[in-house]
Every structure is written in C-alpha cells, then in structure tokens.
C-alpha cells in the first residue's frame, strides 16, 4: 500500500513547510523597522551574515579583526532550502542583515518586499563593479544589495573531436548550427550542443546576447517584450537546434550528465567560470582535450555575452544597512579579499564582478583540463567585459521562469515552437503583472 | 514482521450487531473526553490549525505597487484564488492525468498482488513465509532510495539497460509519450505489490477452510475455488486497498519529482497536482494560491474516495 510511502515522501515537503510555520512563530520583535536609511549608523555594531560559499567564513574573520566597529556574525546557511529559510526568517523578524543570493532571487525577494532599499548608502560603491553587475542588484532602478561574483558566458569544446569532424570553433550562432550539421554528416550520433529539458537558461543567454529585453522599466510601468526582433532572433537559433536535432537533451540534474561530453557524444557547450573548478573531477577521460573559445555571437563586430550574478542582498529589518554594504563591498571588491577568494585553495569558485578582473583570472583556470592552444585567460576576461548591460529582471521573473520551464519541455519535444512559447509567455507575464497590481504593457 | 504474517481479522460481512452502548452518565462522558484529550490536542495542532491557516491564506493575495519592487501588501480577496484554481486548466489536467494513470496502474498492481496472494494461499506454509518476506522487500526500502535506484536504471546517460539494448542492436527509451507512464507505473507497482499482497493474503487466511472442503466435495478445481469462493469473499480488502492506493496516487509527489531529474521534458513541473502545488509555493513563492490549490485537492480527493467507496460497495453487495 504505497500511499503510506508516498506520504512519507511528501512529509519531506510537509516538514519543510512546517518548519516555515514554526519559524514564523519563533521570533517577532520589531520587524517593521524598514525605514529607508540615509544616514550612517554610529558606534560598535554586530550584524548577521548568511552565506554558503566556501572560504567566505575565513574572510569574515579577517574583516572582524580589522574592523572592531562592525563585527560580522557568520552563519553557514548551506542546504537546498536556504532561500526558503531566509524568507521565513524575514517574515519572523529574525533575518540576517546580509545574505548571499543569486541575481534572480534578489529580484524575487525585492519584489516580495523582503529587502531593504540601500540606494543612498550603496551609491558610493557603484563604480567598483561592472554596469551589468550593478544592474543585477538594482532591479527597477532601486539598489537592494552589493554584487559578489559574476559568471560570464564562453564556450568550451572538444578540440580533438572538432578536428576529427573537420569543424572550427564557431564565431557566430549561425556558425554553430552549420558546424553541428557538418559534424553530423561525419557521425550521425554526434551533437554540437546540449539543451536540458528543464532549463530554459540557454534561451536566456541567447536573448541576453542578442540584445533582447524581456523586461524593461519605463517610467512607472514595465514593457514586456518577448517577441522583439532580437528576442525572436535568439529564439530562432534554439528552434534550429531543435528542428535539426543538433542538441542533446541531457538534464543538468541527471547524475550522468557529464558523461555526455566526456564520452564525446556532445562536443561543445557554453559554460562559465563557476564550472571551471569541477571539470577535473567530471571529465576524467577527456582531460587535456578541451579548449576555450569566445561564446558564439550574433554580431562579431559588437560582441555581447550574458552572465549570472552572485549578490549580497540586504534584508528587510536590517538596522545597519550602511555597515552591511560597507562589509559587502570590502568582501567582493577589495584586493585583499578577492586575492584570497579567487585562489583555488579557498574553494569558493568565485569570479569577481569588479571592473578589472585581470589580476584574478589566471588562478582559476584548471590548466590540465585544456590543451593550451588558446589563451584561456583572455577568453574569460573578454567574456567578463562583454556582458550586456541591458538585461533586467522583472518583479515576477521567478513565476515567469517557472511558466517558461513548463513550455520549454514542450519545445524540446517539438510539440510547440519557440515563437509560440514566447508569444504565450509575453501575454502570461503582462497578465500576471497586472494581476499583482503592477502596470505593464506588451512591447511589440 | 510476525504481526504482519498473522492472519488479520477483516470485515468481509457486517459483523453481528454490537450491543447498544450503555447510557453513560455525565461524569462518564467527561472522563471519556479526558481520555481523548491527547488525541484531540494533537489533532488540533497538526491538522485543524494548519488547515485553518491554509484556508485563511487562500483568501488573500499579494499585491505590489509601482514597478513591483519594494513593500507588498497582502489583501483580502475572498474566493478569488479558488475561482482561479477552478478555472486553472493545468491544475485540472494534472488531476486528470494522475487519475487516469492511477486507475490503470492501481488495477495492474492490485491484479498482480491478488494473483500472488492466491498463489501463496495455495502453497505450503514455509514457502509462504519466504515469498511473503521476499515480496515485501521493495516496500521495506525507503521510497526515495528505490526511486533513485530506478532512476539510475532509466537514466538516458548512464543506464546499463540502454547499454545492453544498444549491444543487442535495438534502441529503447524510457520516457516520452506512453513510455513515461510505463516507467513510472513500473516503479510504483514494484513498490506497491508486496504490501498490498500481504493485506490480501492476510484476509485470505482468515477465510474459513471448511468452505474450500465443501467446494472440493462438490468437485470444484483450485482455480474455480479461487475465483468463486476466495475472491468474492475478500472484496472488502480489495476495495480498501484500491481506495488507499487511489488517494495515494492523487498525492503522488516524490517519485515523479525525483524522476524529473532525468526526464524533465516528459515529467513537467505540473505533472501531478502535488508537484504543481509545490512549484507554486516554493519555486514561484505564491503561498496563497498554493494554499487554495491544496484545499481544492483535498476536497476533490475526499469526494472521489467517497464515490469510489460507495460505487464499489454497491457493486459488491
């Protein structure tokens, strides 16, 4: 009678939600102190900081030694439910002042009113970071955090197999399609790319690169545009990959996903800095056969890449936002901190979001992975400098992404086209925003 | 284990009428309430309060202002969430998918369980004990572990079964279209056969042996005894296991969620109602809508279980 066991499984989720409830009952003191801070706080303060990046705790100790006025209490919040715990803590009034979060979640938390507006106290740090990174912490033009790391997009490919199939590293996305077809003429089974059925991030990257703007803040409303010429150009590449069966569909959650590349059935991928440290363990058979190249572009004269950002968000109820921002800026931009964090020994996997990354690039490259034929450091530095700064996360990005995930699977199975998906997502997004009381119009 | 192998009393016919309870005095009633207090408190704390909380959540919606970043308001919107759920095509599609899949899978699972129980009923006692224990093993393995085990067997990138098939010169796939349901159904059936068989087997043991002797004297063969005497006398337990399994299927969550790791394009985030609710609450962050969906699912499950019980009971009697 398997319903008992199904229940046992479901109880995992139930336990998670119950813990939310319990947490919600736990605290409750002054959660309404979220006034917009403009002045510097005085005196000695202690603030809590959540992160789950290796090597960060050691850095907070360094900071604490040098800054007796602002003491950081580090909490390792590692776990699958970190964001849920954080949400519960904010609602209970027991949230930390500062927490690690990715750019998408920062926008999501901000939209749910769980962050503190630090536009005024954080402005002085803006110049340290790339424009795209600052965008990531300033959804809708309001700053809610400090950038921590970036992961600009570039390409890794199996140089040995490219040579075998007589193709070269693609400069444009059209080149990639052509190379994929050419390789398949030599070997029917080989795929040039991978698109996971659960993960529309390929489309996000392509759209970001093509200059599309899914969300654009204009005065008091959002212009939602999933069907602009740029967005459709990006969608068309995905469509061609699907139609011509040029991409494998290994799920990134599949334990065997890396075999796809290690055994050479898929021969290229777009990748980023955060993946570099895990190559050595995951590609035992193809070690030394890899080479890095720029991500394929839409316009080689005007190269543009995409990037996810790691950020440090200042949460609602934080009493010392100026100190939190000061510490965050030190952690993510000072030479002292970055030199340690970008050292592979720290295991942080961090790639900075600062304007000049050149001092930190060399150390993060796993040299035994690549054949030494291309300048890996240059590829990474260039990718970081080309991140398009037009991209914005809208206030319902998470809900939109979830909706897109559902349709993305259908696109991969050729049940609907990318264009149909984009058209329906555009309508869905506008309706959902209006439903939440936010003004939005469809773009084109 | 020993408690499981012992034949359990199963209500196949309505038992003799219980003597009407003595009229208890006020003091007695009071004492009775005291005895149930621990249960009542637990029931209140773990069922009534959370359900009440979910209900109050479901009557609200989160609204933003301006560009949507910044403070939000939770406003009372009455039954608007419920109206949305009732008109939510994806939610009802997941319900229909789960029901259709469940009705086929449960029939197969109970059919096999019944067959095995009947076979066991016919063999020697020592063999019975061995087979019962062996068939119960899948049930003893935690569902997450067994799902992961099947996940590795089904994995498009690492499955040894796919390797074998390729060496044999054929290409098979475990997901996509009907295959998705066959793969998932196989997993759930594998997990569920043992336990259901134990229950059916136990109620078979409780049947009076004299019936079989009488039938044999009348010249009935074993299969005839099984079909005409054993099966009609254990319909009670078949209905019960059927109903429990049906409720279990409507709450299907962990197995497809884990399987989604290797077949995301075939098992979508709204594959089952529970997965859809989980996605709304913890991925999208819309607790209010998820609460409304949960309550609708609970009510729909309750109605279905009631109808199922009524219909099957009427047919049997």
UniProtKB/TrEMBL annotation, chain A:
Record keyword Membrane present: yes
Gene3D superfamilies: Periplasmic binding protein-like II
SUPFAM superfamilies per the UniProt record, alphabetical: Periplasmic binding protein-like II
Annotated signal peptide: 1-23
InterPro entries referenced in this protein's UniProt entry, alphabetically: Bact_solute-bd_prot1, SBP
Keyword list, A-Z: Cell membrane, Lipoprotein, Membrane, Palmitate, Signal
Pfam families named in the record: SBP_bac_1
Superkingdom, taxonomy of origin: Bacteria
Protein name (Swiss-Prot/TrEMBL): Extracellular solute-binding protein
Originating organism: Streptomyces phyllanthi
UniProtKB/TrEMBL annotation, chain B:
Membrane association type: Multi-pass membrane protein
ABC transmembrane type-1 domain: residues covered: 95-308
Family: Belongs to the binding-protein-dependent transport system permease family.
Protein's recorded name: Sugar ABC transporter permease
Compartments it resides in: Cell membrane
Entry superkingdom: Bacteria
Xref: InterPro entries: ABC_transporter_permease (IPR051393), MetI-like (IPR000515), MetI-like_sf (IPR035906)
Residue intervals passing through the bilayer: 32-55, 99-121, 133-153, 188-207, 227-247, 289-309
Any one GO BP annotation for this protein: transmembrane transport
Chain spans, region Disordered: 1-25
GO cellular component: plasma membrane
Pfam families: BPD_transp_1
Keywords: Cell membrane, Membrane, Transmembrane, Transmembrane helix, Transport
Keyword Oxidoreductase tagged: no
